[in-house]
Amino acid sequence: MPDRxxxxxxxxxxxSGAHAEAIEEFYxxxxxxxxxxxxxxxxxxxxxxxxxxxxxxHKSVVTxxxxxxxxxxxxxxxxxxxxxxxxxxxxxxxxxLALQTWDGDRIRSERFYYDPAxxxx
Length: 121
Description:
Number of helices: 3
Order of helices and strands: HHEHEEEEE
Structural class: alpha+beta
């Protein structure tokens, strides 16, 4: 079960823009991620590779400070807001909830909930 300070450290790392580094530092080696109802993907090395590839497809990614997160035992829910600047200069705004299952002080699994229509805007 993570303590509040550990979750806050994870959030701060992501907000700082260190997305791939946060995966390396805060996820178990066999961790998985899942987009909405998609197939879970992992392990951590693949998650890091995927995160770096996603970042490379954009001019920039801004992660806004988190307004809300909740901890209940080994479950954490974080409300994320991102602005992705595409290569053509357009901005994609994503608002999502991440449901994480922690094992000790690292994330074992994470599932993102968001409206895919946000990606078309």
